[in-house]
Design a protein that fits this description.
two-stranded antiparallel ribbon; five-stranded antiparallel β-sheet; 7 strands; elongated; alpha+beta
Length: about 160
């Protein structure tokens, strides 16, 4: 038990950075029985992409007061922004819902053509997003981890809403 405790302590101190898209690869072997007592072995190889959204806490909520505190206290010192062209097939509210669903974010406030969104990772890193609609979608992101912000922006750039 002492060896396990020491190993567990070392692993905990060297936490894996979960914000880079990774792949879980493996294989499953199973047997099929056929008529006449014959067995056939089958092998399935698989690969599951694990992107940043897999590590976002689902259904997190954030009040306007908490959002303002998080934004003003200086912890979120990493930022990035991008502009995306959007087809005019949905309303602003529909795009906001689609964005929140895709990236596991919560709407803090929606006013006119803008929305404030909040998210939290399983490592308790926070991310705040401001969406502005003006014929295109402007995405401004702030977070407390540069890798988190960069990975989020990579996903936003490749997303199809």
């Amino acid at each position: 038990s002492g060896i396990y405790a020491e190993y567990g302590k070392q692993w905990y101190q060297r936490r894996v950075r979960v914000y880079v898209t990774q792949r879980l690869k493996g294989s499953v072997t199973y047997f099929m029985e056929r008529a006449g007592d014959s067995k056939e072995e089958r092998l399935i190889n698989f690969s599951l992409p694990l992107d940043l959204t897999m590590f976002m806490v689902p259904n997190v909520t954030c009040s306007i007061a908490k959002f303002e505190t998080v934004m003003t206290e200086g912890r979120l010192d990493k930022a990035s922004s991008t502009t995306l062209a959007l087809p005019e097939v949905m309303s602003c509210s529909e795009y906001i819902r689609a964005f929140c669903g895709r990236f596991r974010l919560a709407v803090v406030e929606e006013v006119g053509g803008a929305a404030s969104l909040y998210g939290c990772t399983v490592r308790s890193d926070e991310i705040c997003v401001l969406l502005k609609f003006n014929g295109s979608l402007v995405v401004n992101v702030k977070g407390n981890d540069q890798l988190l912000v960069n990975s989020f922006m990579d996903l936003v750039g490749s997303a199809q809403l």
